[in-house]
Design goal:
- With about 625 residues, this protein is an all-beta fold.
- It is built from two helices and 48 strands.
- The longest helix has 6 residues.
Length: about 625
Amino acid sequence: VGSTTLEGEVLSIALASQPKDLLAAGTTAKNVVLLSLPGFDTIAQLRHDGHVRSLSFSPGPSGLLAGGGGTDEMNGLMTKKVSHCEMKTVIWSVGTDGASGKYLGSIAFDDIVHATAFTPCGKALAVGGEHRSIAILLVDQGFKQAAHLPCTAGVRCLSWSPDSHFLASGGEDMQVSIWDVATERLAFKLPKSPDWVCSVCFSPDGSWLACCGYALKEVTLHPVMCSAEAGDASVRTPLAATPNSAGPPMPAVAVASPVGAKKITLPAPEDEPLSEQAVPQVHVSAASGPKHGSDKVGRRRGRTLLGAMLLPMTLQPSEARSKVNLPHQDEVLSLAFGPDGKTLVSGGEDSLIAVWDVTSQRRRMEVNIRRSIVTVAYSPSGCYVAAGRTDSVVTAWVVESGDEVGHEEVEGDVLSVAFGSLCDQEILAVGTAAKKVVLLSMPGFESFAELSHDGTVRCVAFSPFGGLLAAGGGTDEMHGLMTKKVEAAGTKAIVWHVAPGSTSDDSEASCECVGSVAFNDVVHAVSFSSCGKLLAVGGEHRAVSVLAAGPGLQAAAELPCPAGVRCLAWSPESRFLASGGEDMQVSVWDVVMETLAFNLPKGKDWLCSVAFS
């Protein structure tokens, strides 16, 4: 189209299509040059008084232009700036022809401004810089500050999600942070990159988040999942885009890949509405704005981040219902809910496997297998339950009739079992002390694969979608008496992709290792989130690690625990995670915020199993 030489170095540019096609260029000559397109003629020069390091046009016909900057001749070596450095953001109205360039005002900051960004809805302006924070200013209220987002280091770049709800920032902390502006909270941080992040940008359709930075010779595109939202006014703020009944649903962003890692493409689950059915002992509610009837809350669709609900939510013990006890004759070591949430299977030292009707608290099925039961599982179809017992035998039954489907004696003690469903074919995974996972077909109960782990397999779990199988464990011959484990102990979690429909004896033809994560102590619990995007891993390292369930198994969150973790369970909306173990109590975590929601009262001994309905 053309080129032109400007006074001073060019530091920033911005394009506008309304009220007409314009190109703005910010320079070290302390002004902004407006150029026409496609003619490339200079039509105006706007004075800033400082180096213009960032520019942003407001969307639509309003014709606003924000320019942020400041002069720093010491290139960051002088921390205390003086007033003549002109560290500010200036607002102009460029008019219908771009030639007027009317000065509207400026907002002063105590350090250099590096980034300005109008929301796609045009109602707010975000400003970030070396003052280590992001200011959110309301356009319609004279740029009054509406929110303040504290950052750990200087901010160099900003980008809004298409729905004006989330804001991505990057800079001198060497990572991309994603903020929920409506709640003024940090929603998610991507892992650090080698150096400062220079630029970050959401794609207009919300399907990608792009970023680049120093020390990286590439642009990284992170897949972004969007879930439609109906636009409930009760949870919206002045910063959110105004719902438009004539337009498409408002998208909400969910980041699916960390910075600097392999690009992870995770299948997006269907955008299910938030369920009104509460968990026993637990109440889930949306905490933003007044409720207009419980049926509306139940129908509302929520924003998701890696499948976790981003609407402000609370989880707490229910005062409306009482605790329920389902009695056994001896210690209960394992339990699992059926897929409908109305039935539960349990088993333990009394050798009794029982299927309970949770509502009536009566047993629908019971079988005494005359051996202690160490682990149980419920099939996704609700047709079968399985149990592993102390004599290296795993058995499955039909729930409706109580008839045995089959049994299999495996090498080594059975320590864990889990059901999975692949293309309408159910399979059973069995983790053993022989350092392997055995896969059995259902209902034929034929062994069709053996997967090596290198450590005693203490826990197994299938993802709800995609055919992923996780196994955690480690060998500890001293039964916890030796705190420092050696590398040969195999203290790790491994994830495989299990191909659907295979009943071949050739494990290589049906299973492929996706990756593994090593830990410094034995892993006792693995659990996929209900959306299938996250994998939680807990063990004797006294923490719960939350990993992105894709290639590389990148870390998404770390939840410190006071003692070893023995069991994990996700809430249905993938927002909350329950853990239990050697601290003798159940802890419920808000995974998105990485905070402890609450603890249930302590038990008498270690907790062996926990589950949400």
